[in-house]
């Protein structure tokens, strides 16, 4: 089935006249009639009763009309979308982030890139470090952001963005909220909330365990939103990275002697062509003043 056959059929179905349909489609009537006969042969039955002065849809033609109209509209929409992408009128960004990366880090850059395109479509994918690596490998995402990926695939392009410390976060009602620096002795009696989705959770846990903090009795949390709600309810404390956004109801403090830092990286796939949007975002992220961002997070 060719799209010009569908277009000719829809014209005749609307006008109920082969001659007028041929004029509208800017083809000769024999060419239009031949194309419709080929379509009828493919579908296995007559679509029209050739009566004078008007053609009439057969039962098969009536049933096929909405289906072929939908087919034609979808093809036309696909052509328009492809044309918009090619001309730069519309862009798409497919980016994968691990659960432990705060989307707020990207917001200023996304707002800036939106001004460069008439229409811009975002697709954000979340996962653990292994899943983000798979999104990049199979082409579901063009860019990835993670502290580290659970894969040593040799086609990954990797650019470090910034390195940050971890600190303790708690409710402002918590007894430790009055201190800007917390000692390990203060944590030994506290109920910890463990961010199991963070790539550095094991490393943070190891550092705390080495200082006698009962990490094994912590509550295991699987999402940042759940963590915030539990912290606001004063059900434990958590060690989280500096750039993680927290509401005004919580307090952040340094842990004296905590040996845990993470470097957040931007990832791409070497040798794979990137869209104009992905290339622009990559340049923005690599050229950003991340020290200023870290300063605001303090």
How far apart are the termini? 63 Å
Rg calculated over all Cα atoms: 30 Å
SSE string, helices as H and strands as E: HHHEEHEHEHEEEHEHEHEEEHH
Give a short account of the largest sheet: 8 strands, mixed
- What structural class should be given to the helix and strand makeup? alpha/beta
Shape annotation: elongated
Which runs of at least 5 residues are low in confidence (pLDDT < 50)?
none
Structural topology:
Layout lengths: L2 H13 L2 H8 L3 H15 L4 E2 L6 E2 L1 H29 L2 E9 L8 H8 L4 E9 L1 H9 L5 E4 L9 E16 L9 E2 L1 H4 L5 E3 L5 H10 L8 E3 L2 H9 L5 E4 L8 E6 L5 E9 L6 H12 L2 H8 L1
Helix pairs in contact: 1-2, 1-3, 1-4, 2-3
Fill in the keyword field for this structure.
alpha/beta, two-stranded antiparallel sheet
Summary?
This protein is α/β, with parallel strands linked by helices and 298 residues long.
Structure notes:
The longest helix is centred in the N-terminal third of the chain and has 29 residues, at 59-87. The mean pLDDT is 86. The protein has helices at residues 3-15, 18-25, 29-43, 59-87, 107-114, 129-137, 184-187, 201-210, 224-232, 276-287, 290-297, and strands at residues 48-49, 56-57, 90-98, 119-127, 143-146, 156-171, 181-182, 193-195, 219-221, 238-241, 250-255, 261-269. It contains eleven helices and twelve strands. By secondary structure, it is an alpha/beta fold.
